[in-house]
Write a structure and sequence with these properties.
3 helices, about 140 residues, 5-stranded antiparallel sheet
Length: about 140
Amino acid sequence: MRKHKQSRWFAEVEIDVQFFDLDPMEIVWHGNYVKYLEIVRCALLDKIGYNYPQMKASGYAWPVIDMQLRYVSPAVFGQKLKLRADLVEWENRMKIDYLITDVASGQRLNRASTIMVAVDIATKEMCFASPPVLFEKLGIEPA
């Protein structure tokens, strides 16, 4: 079993599973987990001061180029979930690891990761190293 990586740059959000997130089997439809990842990713990006408006203002877009999800146990209507996002790589890309757990029991329901890369908005070219603005937002020096 792979352990969830944790970092000093993280965010946690609690949500209640809504009826509109369910599929005909009355569990959260698998595609809605992508929405849950976006919710906590935005909380993390807000925390470091580099969410989508700040990215655009800095001249970079950061599209998600890879996403991995591992479903362990289904979430159901009314269940309170804890969403956690940890920024675990930043030198050449932003890799974020996610953990979704049941608030009451701590049971893991889903783990995931996304990879985002910087794209220069003006040239539409992908950057092979993260731009200095990301290091500035993280309060660290580039390697």
